[in-house]
Design brief:
172 residues; mainly alpha; 0% strand; flat
């Protein structure tokens, strides 16, 4: 009897473990691959990418602060995440670099940090280049305007179709 209880307990534990692992595997299968942001690596990448005139005026701490504010902006837009807090939503997420710059400048002013707008633009551009290098983001191409204009022209030239009629000659 004791052996039977032990076997049932082991089988129960194995079933629970398989169900738990299966649920996690199913959830991870639907998520996009994770690109890990290494803060020190990003800081080094950005610092090396910045023009000499900027690095002469910004210290590592200043660059770190701008990077942190930009990450906060990306998190607020649902683009960045911490651990497993992925915000699922339809389609591609697009962020406006000018909106990001304004956000960084506002947040910096709240803590009495007033970086030059040009420096913020350069740091954000370098951070986005780092994200592209690790495969976390990509440029979004705009629509082909010539193709859209041709489609619109075709639509405009199409002759209007008469409304459908029923067997008695009246509207259907």
């Amino acid at each position: 009897m004791l052996i039977l209880a032990a076997v049932v307990a082991v089988v129960l534990v194995v079933v629970i473990a398989l169900v738990a692992v299966g649920g996690v595997v199913a959830r991870l299968r639907t998520e996009p691959p994770r690109q890990v942001f290494e803060h020190d690596e990003a800081l080094e990448f950005v610092a090396q990418a910045l023009p000499d005139s900027t690095t002469a005026q910004l210290g590592y701490e200043d660059v770190q602060r701008i990077l942190r504010f930009h990450l906060d902006y990306l998190y607020s837009k649902g683009v960045a995440r911490s651990g497993g807090d992925l915000q699922l939503g339809p389609g591609v997420r697009v962020v406006d670099p000018q909106e990001a710059q304004a956000y960084v400048l506002r947040r910096a002013a709240l803590v009495d940090f007033y970086p030059n707008r040009t420096h913020v633009v350069e740091v954000i551009a370098s951070q986005l280049a780092y994200f592209e290098a690790i495969g976390a983001v990509s440029e979004v191409e705009g629509p082909d305007l010539e193709e859209l204009e041709a489609e619109q022209h075709q639509h405009d030239r199409a002759e209007p179709q008469p409304p459908p009629v029923d067997g008695n000659g009246g509207p259907a």
